[in-house]
Input
Amino acid sequence: MNARLQLPSSEAVAGSAAELLTVLRAAPPLVQCITNSVVTGFTANVLLALGAAPAMVDITGEAGLFAGISSGLLVNLGTPTPEQRAASLEAVGGANAAGTPWVLDPVAVGALPVRTGLARDLLALSPTVIRGNASEILALAGRTAGGRGVDALDGTEAAADAARELAERTGGAVAVSGPVDLIVDAGTAIRTANGDALLTRVTGGGCALGAVMAAFLGAARQTGDSPVVAAAAATLVYTIAAEDAAQGAAGPGSFAVRLLDALSAIEPAGVAARARVEVAAAVTA
Amino acid sequence: MNARLQLPSSEAVAGSAAELLTVLRAAPPLVQCITNSVVTGFTANVLLALGAAPAMVDITGEAGLFAGISSGLLVNLGTPTPEQRAASLEAVGGANAAGTPWVLDPVAVGALPVRTGLARDLLALSPTVIRGNASEILALAGRTAGGRGVDALDGTEAAADAARELAERTGGAVAVSGPVDLIVDAGTAIRTANGDALLTRVTGGGCALGAVMAAFLGAARQTGDSPVVAAAAATLVYTIAAEDAAQGAAGPGSFAVRLLDALSAIEPAGVAARARVEVAAAVTA
Amino acid sequence: MNARLQLPSSEAVAGSAAELLTVLRAAPPLVQCITNSVVTGFTANVLLALGAAPAMVDITGEAGLFAGISSGLLVNLGTPTPEQRAASLEAVGGANAAGTPWVLDPVAVGALPVRTGLARDLLALSPTVIRGNASEILALAGRTAGGRGVDALDGTEAAADAARELAERTGGAVAVSGPVDLIVDAGTAIRTANGDALLTRVTGGGCALGAVMAAFLGAARQTGDSPVVAAAAATLVYTIAAEDAAQGAAGPGSFAVRLLDALSAIEPAGVAARARVEVAAAVTA
Output
């Protein structure tokens, strides 16, 4: 198989980001979020600002049913209470039965046993996209114990092999967040270089990106874009908005406020013009 | 019965809004909130900004006892965990035993079975005020399955009959939020037309209004205003503050920040002068 | 014992505040927070803005293990679900076994039985620092039923004896928040007078200070500062940042945003120069 021939161009990825943003606003995807208690409000506000419709349906008896009618689902393991753990499995069952794309954000897996066990169970259910930092991706792939492993400062490349391996196992895409974001599937490696360090000073800066990916996966059901392209498109829109927000911000408080304003104001044409993206064939280790 | 003779004038409702705001700030009502995990922080900040005293007492063993000493209670069904469901019933029992007024916000009832069952149980316990959008009010009245029913864009009038029917069943008031807010009891229909579309772009924009209604019901225990007038007064104060907040806002992020500032700064005289309110007799369907 | 000879000078406390802030930013302490659902996001953002690393690990099966590797732990009783209550006891067990310092914030103890019982159990486990308002400290010491007792307006001195008594029982420090903050241990009474009344108009204004204390206790493991000095240092840094935030704030909404910006920008030299602090020997009642 000559993966090169199937690769999208950088321009095509940037164009998909602009198109998916247009589609999302024209027909707001219903995004179900099962996420941690720290970032629920910020995550919902990010989705609303962007133009999507958030719904935090995270209890058993409702989560699975709702996953069948939602456009995309986020499962974030930041504060996984017993009720949320059961609801996550129920939701993913409903999503997989209905063909609803879903994102797994394995927050802090590795050293913490409860979420790590749940993350492995969820991994076996083939998430459409996995999103995490390098440390989390390495831990989920079983290459480190997490936490004490690769620091965020090491950048995303340290997790490139682990990301591709996970993508091969799930048949989906894996996004590694960092100064350069790396989004891969079995054959493609997309690197994006927009954003601002202030995103790491706001709680939920990464978690909300997982929700934006679920929204873009929902929009991609209309355009036919692949999960790796949808995840890269979400990253581009979110991190370009972060650049706008950082301009004139006096610190992390005003940055977070301005990020919501910027997500609401960002235009597809600006995304296409400002995207810093490279596409390469995934290299077998 | 000639309901027309008992109707308050528009000027009287605007005047009650100003007076209740004055009373609320002079003797801050203790507002117990059992609300969803997405909006807890924003809701508490709205109440604090306005001048009320929020208390999120939402566990069994405490919720009922506290409802007996609080000035008003909000029960919002946005993310009803098993513990919250039990605490809601306990709290309402305590509220009804003590004569504490309470607000039911039946978020997303209709298609989702767990909250829909709970909402019906709570409806039978006679909430002082029910607050929702048109779709939720229609679903709670059993006229649609919710969600797939009337869209928010259809406005509040589509739910006018359902709202009056619910008010007749509970003996209280029902508030339908939308571009024009409709607040009814068995004999009265109050329409208010203040506000800004940005309220729909902030998570908790509607949920926090339910808490403000609970605060105004608490203040109304001193003035003797009826639930329908107290709910309309809360709507006027909140939506007029939203108009102030929208001026100069750069998007939903700065709007939410400015809404808290505006709720803190809003003066009773300004509320009375700027209220856009009409009062009519409820028409039997 | 001549406590006077062991007392730090006011200048020394101000100097410790500056030094601990420097140490905290050079080696960000990992701060585990088990806190209420209203303030989780704001608390994490306060820690991130300051330069610390928050981690909301609050489920059983993880909380105790994580307390063994964290730099400091906060246990806040604002919304104590059954799962959080069990996790709190597990976390404190892990913290005490590992020598991790921990802060108890007994929100609203006294009239509410569930949290009051838990607070007494936790009190027996010797928190490094207890932080609350005067009413909560009096209730925890068994001197009032709480709530109906001393109002915040009465100031912190009304709880001075109760605070010292609790400090003697735990061997740690007790911080009473108010217009003048009082931080005591068995032999020392530190009073600080920085801050702004807007802190009381933002939900989590006090709760987040408990988390900052846990962060400073973590940093104090490197400097050897005592708990009472670390708690006073945290109070100084936080309340001086609040003064910066209040300047130019238009109300509680913009104040909260500016507080995060100010915590990120505040410099150790400014803390040392602006600290309003007095140190006295604790007086036996």
About this structure: Chain C is about 50% helix and 15% strand.
